[in-house]
Every structure is written in structure tokens, then in C-alpha cells.
Amino acid sequence: MFRSFMQDALDQAREAAEAGEVPVGAVISRRGQIVARARNRMVELGDPTAHAEMLAIRTACDELGSPRLTGCALWVTLEPCAMCAGAIAAARIDRLHFAASDPKSGGVVHGARVLSQPQAHHICEIHEGARADDASALLRAFFAARR
Amino acid sequence: MFRSFMQDALDQAREAAEAGEVPVGAVISRRGQIVARARNRMVELGDPTAHAEMLAIRTACDELGSPRLTGCALWVTLEPCAMCAGAIAAARIDRLHFAASDPKSGGVVHGARVLSQPQAHHICEIHEGARADDASALLRAFFAARR
């Protein structure tokens, strides 16, 4: 049965919610295989940089034994912030797929637009919107329950 | 004898160069005391996110037992990239002091200008230029030796 990488990222987001973390999940794929899965762990680790994307990038570099993730795609349930977008560029990830867009804190198609700066020495394809409704529903339910 | 925090950051940068890493060092201070020191460790850790600032932020959060570095200042020898600028905002650091500016990869006063976006939910004071000549000299010597 076909299972999309974004579905795996959504499963990670759901796990994050169950652990009391803002539900964002990420997956890194290479040649059709998943090389890293991660979810937000800011609360658990007491680390403001422990976003799903950052952890997935570090895991994938470990897994592949390289600080360059050329040939890899990152699938994440929410538009990355400026920090994570910068990490995507630093890791030379070829393709970014994000589900929900984030006008408040996103740094890819909003705000700092880190991957679209003329300065960028790396070209990353950007794909937006796949499973956006599912990703947003997870976030809405999480914040509604905390109010 | 007065010793500036930027001098400590420069010492970290020098250590990075000796270890074969791009010479950038960072220090985080709070109420006049250093709470974290770090230098680039990208090569050592095989991790493209292991910039001095990222490691200093994670160390300071550990040290202070908080994911918020309110009341802290970050001293770094080179203008932070977009990733590190995003981490500075995520950690709620109050003040950033950087030495050399980085037109090519900087994300504070160049490129994405992450800390100056209208979107930013956090105000970080930016101070530029202290010990810029010393920080640039370290970088120039490092890259000249590798050519």
C-alpha cells in the first residue's frame, strides 16, 4: 500500500502532541527511502532549537555519515521557521515539502524567506500544501485543548 | 584586569581554527557572568548545524535549566547566519553583539535579516563591530592557509 512520506511526518506530529509538544513532525527521504524521522522535542529537552526539522537533519547526517544532505528531501507538517530554513540550506537539502503554511512564524514563504534570498548559495525546491488540512487540524486541536 | 566577553569569543574562534574548523566563537553572558562558551564544531561532529552560536545556546539552556535565555547576551565573532539568528529569536536572547559582518552568509544585517522582520515576536538589540578586525584576521588567515 502506498504510504506518503508526509503521512510519516504527520504520525510524528501526532506523537509530539501526545507528548505535550507542539505537533510538528518531519521526515527526511533519499532515493525513496526514509533516512530520518523526528518530532518537536523542545519541552522534553528544554531546548528551544529542538524543532522537528533540526533533529531530523542531525539524525540524517549521522545516519548517512555526511554533513551534506544533497539528494535528500525534507517533509515537514508546518512551514519551517527561519532557523530551520537556515539549517535546510546549511545541510544542502534539495527539496522541501511542507504541509501547513505559517504566516506567524514561517521563514520560507513568509517573513525572512530564508531560502529565497539572492544571497543563498544553495537552491532548494519548495513544495507547499500537501496534507495541509490534516497538519493544521492537529495544531488547532492541540492549541484548543490547552486554552 | 578587564577582559571583554568578545575576547572570550575570539579565544573560542582561535581554538576552532586550531581544530581545523572555520574560526567562529561565541559566548553567552548573563548579569556580567559567562554562562556558555562554544566554537564551531561542524567538522568534528559532522553536523552542518553545529555552529558556535547554536552550541552556545544549547549549553546555556542546559546550564540555566530554561529554554528561554531572557536577560542573556550573545557575543559572537561573526555575523550569525539565518539559522543562528532564528535560534537567537527562539531562545529569546535580549542582546546580540557580533564582531565581523558577513555579507555572504550573514542573516542579521544582510540577506534574510531574520531579527528585523515585522513578523518577529521578539526584540533583540543588535550591536555590531566590536573587535571586527581581530575576528576578520582570524578568518582570513584560516582561509589563506587552506588555499
Automatic annotation (TrEMBL), chains A, B:
One of its GO terms (molecular function) is tRNA-specific adenosine-34 deaminase activity. The keyword tRNA processing applies. The active site is at E53. The keyword Iron-sulfur does not apply. It comes from the Bacteria. It catalyses: adenosine(34) in tRNA + H2O + H(+) = inosine(34) in tRNA + NH4(+). Binds 1 zinc ion per subunit. It is an enzyme of class 3 (hydrolase). One of its GO terms (biological process) is tRNA wobble adenosine to inosine editing. Residues 1-109 form the CMP/dCMP-type deaminase domain. Zn(2+) binds at H51, C81, C84. Catalyzes the deamination of adenosine to inosine at the wobble position 34 of tRNA(Arg2). Belongs to the cytidine and deoxycytidylate deaminase family. ADAT2 subfamily. PANTHER family: CYTOSINE DEAMINASE FAMILY MEMBER, TRNA(ADENINE(34)) DEAMINASE, CHLOROPLASTIC. This is tRNA-specific adenosine deaminase.
